[in-house]
């Protein structure tokens, strides 16, 4: 059994993008490196570990996700669901822990055909951290960020995802 049902809604809320660009170009000051976290996010990241409410999801039961960061645009590629989600992200490095969010997203098939997915189109707020060459994202679903990465202070627990950078 794939963890599609458990994972689809929280991850859609986390990475609720579509194929149409939802915003303008990245401001020049962000592209010049004045926002180091945005620069660190750039590139492709593959899901390598996942926990739901503190329990590890084995590799053979989790879906395969690739995150593509280009400027302030996040594209989530899910080949198993034949979906691509695109959102314009905002990061908040003044929050502790740091946050990544988007106000809305759009969903298409991998071929670019629009798909109506209300859950994936909702706003999303999550926390993130970098550990060596990995990106760790945590969500409790929707527009409320978890208070931390350890599940202790978040009602209903969190979904913790570890991504490894894909070599160019």
Automatic annotation (TrEMBL):
InterPro entries: CHP03067_Planctomycetes (IPR017504). NCBIfam families: Planc_TIGR03067 (TIGR03067). This is TIGR03067 domain-containing protein. The lineage of its organism: Bacteria, Pseudomonadati, Planctomycetota, Planctomycetia, Gemmatales.
């Amino acid at each position: 059994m794939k963890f599609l049902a458990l994972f689809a809604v929280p991850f859609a809320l986390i990475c609720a993008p579509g194929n149409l660009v939802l915003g303008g170009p990245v401001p020049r000051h962000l592209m010049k490196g004045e926002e180091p976290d945005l620069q660190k996010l750039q590139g492709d990241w593959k899901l390598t570990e996942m926990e739901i409410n503190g329990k590890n999801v084995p590799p053979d039961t989790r879906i395969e996700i690739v995150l593509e960061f280009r400027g302030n645009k996040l594209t989530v590629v899910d080949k198993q669901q034949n979906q691509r989600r695109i959102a314009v992200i905002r990061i908040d490095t003044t929050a502790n822990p740091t946050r990544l969010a988007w106000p809305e997203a759009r969903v298409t098939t991998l071929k670019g055909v629009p798909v109506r997915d209300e859950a994936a189109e909702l706003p999303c707020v999550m926390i993130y951290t970098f550990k060596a060459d990995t990106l760790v994202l945590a969500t409790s679903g929707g527009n409320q960020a978890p208070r931390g990465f350890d599940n202790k202070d978040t009602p209903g627990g969190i979904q913790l995802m570890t991504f490894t950078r894909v070599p160019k």
